[in-house]
Design brief:
Helix content of chain B: 40-55%
Number of strands of chain A: 43
Low-confidence stretches of chain A: 11-28
Strand order of the largest sheet of chain B: 1-17-18-19
Structural class of chain B: alpha+beta
Radius of gyration of chain B: 34 Å
Number of helices of chain A: 11
Largest interface: A-B, 60 and 56 residues
Number of strands of chain B: 26
Distance between the termini of chain A: 59 Å
Low-confidence stretches of chain B: 1-15
Distance between the termini of chain B: 63 Å
Number of helices of chain B: 17
Mean pLDDT of chain B: 88
Shape of chain B: elongated
Largest sheet of chain B: 4 strands, mixed
Largest sheet of chain A: 11 strands, antiparallel
Shape of chain A: globular
Strand content of chain B: 15-25%
Oligomer: heterodimer
Strand content of chain A: 25-35%
Structural class of chain A: alpha+beta
Chain lengths: ~725, ~675
Amino acid sequence: MRPFTRLFLTLCLLLTIGLFLAPRASAAPAQPQEIPPSYQRTAENETFELYVDSSTLAFKLLDKRSGYLWHSGIDELQQGDRLNKSWRAFAQSGVSIEYLDEKAISKRISITNAGRTLNVTPIEAGIEAEVKFEEVGISLRVRLRLEADGVRVEVPSESIRQENPAFRLGLVYLYPFLGATRGGSTPGYMFLPDGTGSLIRFADSTKAKNMFYGRYYGADLGMIGVMPYDPAIKRAYPISFPVFGMVHGEKGNAFLAVVEDGAAYGELQAHPAGIITNFNFLYNAFIYNESYFQATNRSGAGVTTIQRQTNEFDVVVHYRFLQGDAADYVGMARSYQQYLVEKGVLKKAPDPNPNIGIRLEFLGGDKEKVLFWHRFVPMTTLRQMQTLLDRLQIPNPQVIYFGWQPLGASSMPPLSLKLEGGLGTLTELRSLAENLAANGGRFSLYLDPQAALWQEKGYSPRRDLAMAITSVTLEGYNRYHNSYFTLDALRRRYTALTEDIAASLEADLALDGIGFTLYSDFRESAPLNRQQAIRAYQDMLGKSPVRLGFYRPNDYLWSLTSAYYDMPLGDNGYIYTSEAVPFLPIVLSGYVPYYGAALNFSPNLEEDILRHIDYGMYPSFFLTYEPTAKMLDTRSNWIYTSSYDQWGEQIRQTYARMNALLAPVRGQPITARRELREDIFIITYANGKQIVVNYTDQPVSYRGVVIPPRDAALVENTP
Amino acid sequence: MKRTLPLLLFAILLLTAALPARTRALSPYTTWARGPGGVPYPTQDAYTPLDEIDLPLASPEELFLAPDGFLYVADTGNGRIVKLDGDFQIAAEFGHGLLQAPTGLFIDEDGFFYIADAGKNAIVILNQDGSLRAELGRPSEPLFGTRREFLPRKLILDARKNLYIVSEGSVDGLVMMNTAGNFIGYFGANRAQMSLKMILQRMFLTEEQLEQFIKTEAASPSNLAIDRQSLIYTVTAGTSRDRSIRKFNIAGTNLLQNVFGSTTFRDLHVSENGLLAAVDADGKIYEYNANGVLLFVFGAKDTADQRLGMLANPASIERVGSDLYVLDKDKNAILIYRATDFAKRVHEGVRLYMDGFYVEAKPHFENVLTYNGLFIMAYQGIADAYYKQNDYSRALQAYRTAEDRNGYSETFWELRNAVLQQYLGSALLALFGLWLASAVFTRLEKRFGWLDPLRQKARQLQNIRLVDDFLFMFRFIKQPADSFYYIKKDQRGSLTFAFLLYLWVVIARLLSLYLTAFIFSPYPSPAWIPFETEIVYALLALLLWNAANYLVSTISDGEGRLRDVLIGSAYSLFPYALFALPIALLSNLLTLNETFLYTFSTQIMWFWTGLMLFIMVKEIHNYSLSETIRNILTTLFTMAMFLLTAYILYVLFNQLYEFVLAIIQEIGLRG
């Protein structure tokens, strides 16, 4: 640091202290040695002491339980640190921004390397800072506050000002180097919310060639227009909950960042040591404006421009600090669970059935083309479904009926409850649902409410479809190729159908698509940003007269989720991650039952069943009464194996095996998961019962119980 | 350059000791298998990515599992061969200083290294300890070709110690050499292909243009492998998919036809138990049985995703136990793919099937079908098993599903034979009886006139115009020329009936497509028939012919009116109208042995129709022979011109539309 800068900073600091903080500071006990004098004690509670440097907005947090000091950035470089000037400023500052000039070229600046005015005011348990980057005329307000579990950081939407029309605010980075570690010097790992959860262990080098940049809730289809499709690739699971964390020494210290608000425009950026810098760090970036490519003809020529309207959203991030036994990914998951319980998102739902659920998704049928007409190919009629359920004799089946609408799965669902005539009558449907409920199961109808199926009748392509910023209708695919409804059309259709369902039978809805697809709509008559879409979905679905299950719901729908379907069995497998962990299952355990993807498509059935048991996940199957080959010429031929004749016995066995293990821990949160030896895991539930999963080819013995190779066992924990 | 090796069990254990026991559950790619209609359908993963092992190498080109059970890598950029131990650490290095850029590697039973060096353009042979044994340069024999270059890239050694060498750009195929460096000959050349486009280019382009544009030279193979029977396999990048993998017998004849391959194959491996694996530049891995039938395709290119299992620039593939190892020369890493339970089931079935144990393989294939009912290869195996067990009706069903026309035909022959043997005698007797009865009846009828009232009725019916028109059709069989004259003189035939006839022709066309037996139908199942296009084609052809012929004739002194052309053309189509359906039905009684009957009758029908059209033009327009020929050719030319004009108009309007659209968008954006 040049002497001048230092002088300036000290001056600033002295001024601030003199003006606002002097009385409080003098009353406080002596500052710990390792905290530089530029940091001023700002707040304290039973567990933490917060120190803030009001010239950089960096903070230090002392965990009084362990005496561990957390740093929000890097104050002084050490020998061997690879940080250039720009990165050093980034690491030192609490807040950095990236702006876009008129040519949509972006540049990053930080508090410590740009002309800025900084106005810091003390508030209850923290500070509020008004930052203005003078050269580009962009200003924002940051609130930093100590709370019971850690620190809360806010950037209110109304505080964002862009005064110079030549520059637009692109990104805001908050505390990018919080808890950053050098290479492999500290043991521990970063936690990413990839799939069910993924860890990057700290090391000096990494296989990564690019950083992990993951947009919460996936890319915004409103900005890209068309979801890229490559039949060779399984699309990576988008991030479904805005949480990340870092562990400094397992069972030592850890923190967890939870984005309470603004995740719709948030992006997780994680840098393992070894690319660009020698630091491990990860942080949130929030997107206010983006550039996009506007094609002006079909051959692909066009211009890159910046979106006209700045995204409006508040940012609220909680950093929760953990220590001791809680300082690992299980502790983080439990801390997050506790946060969700306190917020009222997760609620205990009483369920008297003593058995675990199993998702049986029956395909009603689909249409195939015959000359100029479509013919319905029935695969499982209501009567046949009843026969299969009678034959299966499962005590808690969660039945989903897929393709129940007229002409079946690849046709638009109607606006009122109309069943395909070839499948049965409404009366039959009603009695089946009642039968199921009487026997302890649940009946749900499948619905993908956002999807306007490609080239299908039943909606107006001109009025009902959401539009991208490039004025094309959004296009994507879930089970079928589809466009997406505007909020208005979505609400109209959804409300009409659900009201009719609620009026005519006792059934739930299994909602696909809407749980994990979040898009903004740039239709001029009723534009909608992602943040508004979240609120609208919560509102619309919260008013549903029927119970809802979701396929892979994002966190903002968990409060409405009575069952979680299609949970991934791990992470996306980025080569620089060290292992996949069941973070998401631990968060939901005890509150929401979660089911894996249909096991029909599993290439390693044995291993995947073990993984289900490990994660406390319930099984799923696709089923049809007819042989699968009958629907070969329908659009549902992606279900290449489903017939009861082939799967019935397997389903009975799998269910019996998993029920014996998982029923005793039903409704119990997972409290610990540890690796006894490589590939042998012990999962402990709140009622003290343990499940041992042995993935190896050798038998293993634990507390007198011998677990055969590739098997699992329940251990009753009697102290 | 692979060859299959009797693997020592301990070596596999040694190699896999350092690997995780458990794969990650999710793979980044979709796996596809050959489904109905030869089209790939998604299936359960056959291999899941297990690990990616970084190695301190520079752009390695070849991975080789030697007979000693260890992996060796040709570390091209560092000019050496390295040996990897069980933990994928470098245990030894060879050829340092002797090699420049080793790209191909083969190690024989005695532990000698055979190396194709792209830097030296020579074959280097090393002793077990890495010392130089021999270096073979360009063969000096005149047979090799005086101006041919010798650019060895890959090689293998067969049991008789002959080297087969991939020489870059060699159009004559593989270079065969003995270990003393003597040239033996070329082996297994790819044939150059001539397409219509190329022929046209040859006709119209100058020498210089040809030089620039066209390479009619056969593509040279890019890699090769050898199996335990010393059969040589090659992959060729840059040829058509169906010829990209070839398997040669000793005589150099290709044994594989219509392989579902890739145009960018890099390497292949043949295993002990009849499995063929190949990897292409797009990071896709193809697995076949030894007959070249596709089992699985999977894999994805790593652009920037960096998900485990994606390949950036694969160079070499090797099978170790049931795992596939792929060497990636951009990542300097070995990627390991582990066979899933599902794939192991398929492999077990294939192993037995390839060894001829059809019946033993059947339960395995049935098990496979539990997991994927569309796995066509399994139906093939099951069908062959049924056939072997003489269960022909089941075999027929399974062959139908497997879309195996040969198997189906042979099974059908057996079934038909059984029926014939059982009923032929009685059928002949019945026929004879019928003939006798009808002869007697005719005689008696002539005498007593039993059918006279019916004849009367028939004559009355003939007064109805359409009935007369219909009967008129049969007159064309005997007196075509006269009959056209009647049309011209408005004496017989009508527009109404002509249009009915056209309608019937279109219907007959469609019906015959649907009714033709599976053996002779070009479509795997009726659902594949593009009936809309067929209707459009048929109508378009009829419309264009009539329009063009009328227009051409009016300016070349043709006498026929539009009406005459329409009716005449309709009646000319009568062979098709009458015989298309019976031929399609007949095909259901034939096997491939009697293909001649089917094709010949079809050809006769078409020829007859053509002849009728010819006579029609001649008679209706009253042309001489030469005028008729000229007229028909001009008509055909006009038809082509119509199509061309339509196409040009379409393109132009499309451009206009684009232009207007672009303007509107620009205005919207900037205005």
